[in-house]
What we know:
Blueprint: E1 18-20, E2 23-25, E3 32-34, H1 38-46, E4 63-65, E5 69-70, E6 77-78, E7 83-84, E8 88-89, E9 98-101, E10 106-109, E11 114-116
Antiparallel strand pairs: 1-2, 2-3, 4-7, 4-11, 5-6, 8-9, 9-10
Amino acid sequence: MSNDTLPACPQCGLDNTYPDGASYICPDCAFEWPMQADAPGEDEAAAPVRDANGNPLADGDAVILVKDLKVKGSSSVLKKGSKIKGIRLVDGADGHNVDCKTELSSMLLKSEFLKKA
């Protein structure tokens, strides 16, 4: 490969990278990254977020809870059948991929406990 086809370092931005096995290395900042990192990330981003019934969700949708959910760190419970309007899809930790405002507060929920209204 020539230097024209090698990517710039994602950490420092310099073009002085070289391939080494299955990864690229930047000799300037010693950062290493896999050669195939871009392809799987694009596939994951293309996968839609789905509700409990398998319907795709989008930003701004209204959803309904399919089961009672205990709120972590509180004695409160979100009741089954509660309607939540104006959701936002995010990439949260532990599968919490829906950001919304409930009657209790703003929180992250898992899409597997929601159905499209």
